[in-house]
Amino acid sequence: MLAMIMNKSFGTIPNMFTMAEPPIFDIDNIENEILMLSRNSTLHEWKSPTGEVFQIEVPPTVYPPREDTDLMAKAIVKLGPGKGRKCLEIGCGTGVLSILASRQGWKVTACDINPFAVACTKGIAEENFSDIVVHEGGPSPKIDGDISQWTGGSKFELVFWNLPYLKYDQSMTETLGPLEEAALLDTDTNSLFERALNLIKNDIMTDSGIALFVVSTQNSNLQPKQKCLTHGFASRTISKLSFEDGEELQVIAVWKPFYNGKKIYLEQLHSTNTELLDSNYKIGSSICTPKQTAGHGRRGRNWIDAKKSFAGSWKLFDSLPPFESGFIQILAGICVKQSILALLGGNEEKILIKWPNDLLIFDSSKWKKVCGILVEARTSGDNTSVVLGIGINLSGSENHNQDFEMGFLDYLSKDVSFEDLREVIDASLASCFEQKEMILSNPAEEFLEQINIEIKNTFSVLKEPLYRNKQVTFKSILNDGTMEIISENGEIIIIDDGESLEWGKIS
Questions:
Q1: pLDDT tens digits along 449-480
Q2: Which is nearest to 28 in space by CA: 175, 138, 135, 136?
Q3: What does R_g of the chain's alpha carbons equal in angstroms?
Q4: Do β-strands 107-112 and 133-136 pair in parallel, antiparallel, or remain unpaired?
Q5: Could you tell me the maximum CA-CA distance found in the chain, to the nearest angstrom?
Q6: What is the DSSP string of 84-142?
Q7: CA-CA to 324 of 20 to 30 Å: which in 16, 172, 369, 448?
């Protein structure tokens, strides 16, 4: 993943004017726009990641190429050749990214709500002999005609948008101008990002497609990955750009999870893991049921269904996986935790990851086990199927004492449905484990850092556990999923998931 730190050239733009209300293109705005258009166009030189240099005459109300443009450009190049597949750029501005995509072999359609951006893009396409279709229009808070007016009625294998990333605030008294501000200011009450997710889900992206968005940490309310999960999308940060003032821009890749896999629901089943291991389904296939009759957990223990349960299994790999099973279990636990948090919209302090494969929730002054996770593999000839099983207690009254009492998700929320869980967990698992064409998987080191943060937090909340009747402290999780602990005398001990820690009551 590309990550850099630098100064930024965007931010305050000269000739800004006062606007006390959310921007609406009325008579006063038209007069302001005419005033802005009296400025001269400016000549910009932009160098693409491939080394090609473009000279662009930029009208005064069109957003020129800047650092965010460069970040998206590098992400497009990293996808590899377009091979004649269809691509849509939303908010094309000067058109340099559309030209770049065309150079990479994509069949490009571009659109922008600013007619001067449309003219600029058409001009640069003609100058550079690029066959790009350009339409006026695009997603907006107001419905303005049919979507086909700015897409041409197609669905695309690649959709990309350098999103407006400054969130409108009623306290703002300065904006950029009714047309140019579309390049930076998100005036949509529900965020343009969420509007874009709805569009790529149903209207403008193929099932196998990928969408790329530039998002900014400056808009702290955006929470793009959480929004992706709640809309059933997998996502992955594929590049970052950090600035000295603390802001970070990210390119987020978004896609429909495991689109080639079968998604099976059964009213009752002996074991979702066993059923999936016995099948020949493709990677990403899943089987879910509210009732298992012979579910099992770690060390051959029976998995006891609550009155209302979620049991699901996913086929993650059909060859030797890039991670050890213990690592997969903990990472999957984080995926489930993120899924629950996305559905609840918070309550992070009430959910813990317990090594090696459980989730705990805080209920009635106690931490209780709400979820168990199990990775199983089966080898046949040269093929190794790796299946991940997830069991969640949704509601009930049974309380079987093991290391932790049984907890139920409905303590945190009674509004989480079975289907919501399946869809969001599917997306969360794909975000980490799916080997998606054109998108590199995140390196194991990033996942390991996240895992260590989670387990360290668990130790701090549950206090120091016992190992073989001796108090120990946490050191780290290793890349095979084993844990390093430190004994009372300072000795470092490595334990795998065949051993257990004894957790006392929290003080």
A1: 999 999 999 999 998 899 999 999 999 999 99
A2: 175
A3: 26
A4: parallel
A5: 80
A6: T-EEEEES-TTSHHHHHHHHTT-EEEEEES-HHHHHHHHHHHHHTT---EEEE----SS
A7: 369
